[in-house]
Design brief:
Layout: H1 3-7, E1 11-13, E2 24-29, E3 42-46, E4 57-60, E5 68-73, H2 87-101, E6 118-121, E7 124-127, E8 157-164, E9 167-174, H3 175-178, E10 208-211, E11 214-217, E12 259-263, E13 270-274, E14 310-311, E15 336-337, H4 357-360, H5 379-385, H6 389-395, H7 423-435, H8 443-450, E16 457-462, E17 473-478, E18 483-484, E19 490-491, E20 494-503, E21 509-518, E22 524-533, H9 534-537, E23 541-547, E24 559-567, E25 573-580, E26 588-597, E27 604-605, E28 617-621, E29 628-632, E30 636-637, E31 643-644, E32 654-659, E33 662-666, E34 671-672, E35 678-679, E36 696-699, E37 710-713, E38 718-719, E39 725-726, E40 728-733, E41 745-752, E42 773-780, E43 787-792, E44 798-803, E45 806-812, E46 821-825, E47 831-832, H10 841-844, H11 848-851, H12 856-861, E48 867-869, E49 874-878, E50 884-888, E51 908-911, E52 920-923, E53 928-929, E54 935-936, H13 944-948, H14 963-990, H15 999-1029, H16 1036-1074, H17 1080-1102, H18 1104-1108, E55 1109-1114, E56 1119-1124, H19 1131-1171, H20 1177-1187, H21 1189-1210, H22 1223-1231, H23 1239-1244, H24 1248-1272
Parallel strand pairs: 20-26, 40-46
Antiparallel strand pairs: 1-2, 2-3, 3-5, 4-5, 6-7, 8-9, 10-11, 12-13, 14-15, 16-17, 18-19, 20-23, 21-22, 21-24, 24-25, 27-55, 28-29, 30-31, 32-33, 34-35, 36-37, 38-39, 40-43, 41-42, 41-44, 44-45, 45-47, 48-49, 49-50, 51-52, 53-54, 55-56
Disulfide bonds: 113-125, 632-641, 714-723
Subcellular location: Membrane
GO molecular function: G protein-coupled receptor activity
Length: 1273
Amino acid sequence: MSRKQQFCPPLFEFPAQSIGWNDVHLFHSWNSSYDTIWAFDFVCCNEQLCDSETVTIQFAKITEPTKLLSCQKTHKLELKVTDPLTRSNQIESVRILFSKICAIGVHDVGYDCSQSNQFRCGKKCISKHRLVDGLRDCTSLTDELYNDTCSLKDRDRIKCTFTFLGKNDTKFVNLIWVNKINGGIPCVERKKKTPHFPTICDGYVEYEEIVDGEINTDETHCENLLCDNSYTRCDGIWNCRNGADEVRCPRLYCNGIDQHPCISPTDGQIKCLSISQAGDGVVDCLGGADERQLCRRSSVALIDYIVGSYHCLNNQSNGKQINQGSLITQTTKNKCIEVNQLCDNVLDCPLHDDESSIICKGISNAPFCDYQIIEFLFPLRILLCSLDDTLKLFMWGSNDKTVPHFSLANYSISPPYSPISPSIKTIISSNVSEESSLTFNSHRQATLVAFHCHSGIPVHLSRNESKLSPKEIEKRCLCPPSHYGAHCEYQNQRVVVTMRIGSIEWQIAFKFVVYLIDNANHIVQSYHQVDYVSNRDCGMKFSFHLLYAVRPKPVDRKYFIRIDVFETTTLRYRTSWLFELVHFYLPVYRLSIQLTVLNRSILIETRCPLKCHSKHGDCVKYVNTDKFFCRCHSGWSGPSCTEPYECTCSPDSICVGSWNKKPICVCPLRKFGSYCYLLNPLCEQTNAVKCQNNGQCVPRDLRINSNSDTICACSVDYRGKQCEILATKIHILFASLPSHSIPESILLHFITVNTHAPPPGITTTEKQWGPHQRTTVFKKVPFDQVFTTVNWVNPFHLLFAEFHNNMYLLTIQTTYVAWSQMKFSIEHKARCPSIRELLNSTIVAFLPIRRVKYYHIPCQQRLHLACFHDDEQFMCLCTYDRRANCFSFNHHLERVCQYDSYCHNGGQCFQDNATCPSIIICKCPKCYFGTQCHLSTKGFGLSLDVILGYRIRPYTAFKDQPLILKTSVIVTSIMLVVGLINGCLCTLTFKQKTLRKVGTGIYLLVASIVSVITMTMFTLKFCLLVLSQLKLINDRSILISQCISVDFLLKVFLQTGDWLYACVAMKRLFVVTKGTSFNQQTSQRVAKWIILLVGLFVIATSAHEPYHRALVTDEDEGRVWCIVRYPESYSKYLNIYTSVITIVHFIGPFAINIISVCGIIVLTARHRMNARKQLSFNSHLRNQLQLHKYLIISPVVLVLLGMPRLIIVFLVECMKSARDSVTSFLVAYFISFLPPTLTFAVFILPSQTYRNVFKTSMASLRKIFHRCLSVHK
């Protein structure tokens, strides 16, 4: 008699209490008559809490004998567990099952569930929304077997055909079941587009599609495919009819020869059967091991992989020819059963061979093929269990592990492995040691447990260390921030913040300071600091509490969460966010925040509505709202940074505010504490990570437990835990492409290929195997270069480049080698064409499930073809034996940025990883480019920055600059000299009183002065652009000043000059119209008012631009740009307004000049015709053109100068990219500044009157000059 039988009753509870979920108890029996791997025999629950429909026994609860527990046998429960040998996993499986069964309490017996939305489930009522949702609410599964799903009228259900409990069924199932991450049901409406390529034509039907009555599966139309290939070889499953893929494989029997192990049906001896006798329709081995196709399914609708694994013996099958068909009918003459039906004391086979002594000698009532102990079975039992392909899946614990995955090997046979695996023994011993390590203290610990603290920690408090009598020991509670009170029984009003952070700067450590502030005086109620490093903390959620300053909080205020972020190493400020607590009246406010720190400098706002103290703070705009705040310097606080406080932080830290009359300190790396005087010792410990190659040790936050105390922040060129891995510099060259075909950016797809799974039952220490891994990165191609470089440290085997909707195969490495540098040239022969270019239209029109079986044809017909792809799922390589080897590849991968406002002007934002991006790139719409789509190339808004900026090479001598820049410098210098001379001569001429008696002279005098200013501003703008792009000017105050003033003033003076020239043309037309009735004095007064109105009109229509001008840094190019960026709330309307006004300023003067030319000619001709009627109108027209040509020349010239720019605006929409030719745009830009340089030639030279006045002025000037020389002598 065992010790259990000696000291325990036949049925006893252990542990003698509920295991913790809904009063569930575990019971043991010492007289069990069956073998089991379960550590307990019965699972019991309280009938009032859990519904138990299949009760085996009832047992009185020990602590409350009046309550009965309903018990069920453990082995009859549907408990799912990956490792039943450990007690902890078994209890966890009980918890999962009973959490579903006990999710809804039991109702009274009289409750009839009569409401229309209720369904009776034993002794409880459930909502009909819980029917057929994949979650078991009733122990009898009546909620999942419900048939009338069409009557539920639930919009969250779809029609689905699937296999359930061995039967094909069509129901309207809940989307929860279909969308479950793990193990969602195979729904017809949601099935995959194509099957897994390595399993196509492998002998197992896994995919079925019926179109127009034709059945297409992954096993039809397989004439051109081989069943014995690198994916099926030696995987333990017969994919060929004769098992050709499983010969010459490492195994216990028939190792390395063209024979299969076979159990003789007569004596049970194991022999080797020739491959020629396999798959011939004659059953030679016990269980039909040589004719496995007899028990295979042929439809995806049938359950699992097989109808039955073991082929029963019968008088017609033993050693005789068997009628071959695609699917065996279950009859007594020809029957297949499951291997676990062997030796179960049930006669399933017609000749009873399933219970014969050959098979069942020494077998207990346990399952015949227990996957947990398969390695310890007898050889005969192992061979019979190998008939069940599903067993191989269980042996590895995951269905995915035995599925063949993409490989670069043509035909590889796994090397011999040791057939004995120590893995289970290791698991058992390790779990036992873990479970036995829990200990408890004695009486003092028990008294503390009895002293209840709500969410707190009970402690002993002794006021006298020498005496520890019970009277002198007090029990206290240490309360968390969320609670207070003697027993932590009260909750604090608080804000619970859950924050997830992302940053593409993986190696930079950040410090986030989170404040709870009010709207009264921006008083900090409380704050919390978070340390973050992306390569350690990406994806981590940070949760913490922020308390209000007083209890209860004032309800007459609004409250906000403000977050500032600093770089920990340099303590440089980066950006800020503001989140309003909308429902601030809630006692506990929960706020979830997703933050992304972008790899860019903060836009310096040029206008701020706040009056921040100029010396004590800066006005900063929140990155997520249109609001501003004053970010105070160290030692100052308050809404306007006017309130001083004493900063007592350590000298190497910074003060960022005050709280409770104490400074808020931001500590540098390796410092912590309220005042940053404490040193974090983790980096100095002997077991700390030793960073190499100038890597910096970053310790963890001592408040947070982590798997590693320290990590290394590496430089750009190194990676690894110790920065020991030198990044491979991969150079992508585009020298063979025409200049206009070089892309602005490319996608690089790195594919890592993992090895095959080893044969079932054999363990290996080789590299982790599984599906291939794909990593896609974006890389910008520098403007004036024909190559780009990316640093890469992770192993990869395939590298593809993608741009302009074309794929290029750059390299194939069967074994990864970490080279220091790799160079690849983009050539046409490396292009991977679409399958539509390779196959005829008939094959292309096939369904994907059928078309994929013809993918070998391109490889066989085109001997130099290296790769190709389809439009649905696959990227394919051509192997050395000219077969297609394909793997899944999502051609439409789109990862939208977490932070949408990164890209300007409607650009699409993409990132290389959904949760932890390392690269962000913008896909710009037409007419915009730049890293953030911040540069516009539309004609009428074209600026010199956009045209010439990317042509200037930073940090390069002028002699090495492009020719177009040198030419622009020369042209600008000539225009400046000519413009200044022109302006001075015109001013000297039109300042004479004789010409200022009429309005025309006044207009021209002001226009002459404006032309001098315009050309000066134009030259200044050109010089500042060149110097800033050459990195000779880096002072951001200078750059922002010129961004606000120079661009705006240049635009105002140029437009003012254009309007003044138009006023001259209109005045001349007005003079011609009035004739002798023209009044000079009135003309003078009107001209002065018009000049004033023109100036005000030009300034008013452009006044909004300086307010919204800002600097943005292009991190990839290292350039600083001046852009106009409007707030998102009204950017659309301002952009439309700006476009309309720009067109008005451009078309208005142009149209007035044309009208004036035509009007002057027609009106003068008509006047002369009235006086001399004997001549025709055409004759008068020619005469007047000759007589008044000086009046016509100026507007005609102005019209001609405006034509090139007008043509570019309306015929050439914009520059498509930065690589487009800018010659025409640059010429048009310079032409727009010619009118200010040609005033003398346009207005003075054609007019005899103006020439005479000019000569008189010059004569006077010469006299003054000679007089000065005489006096000097």
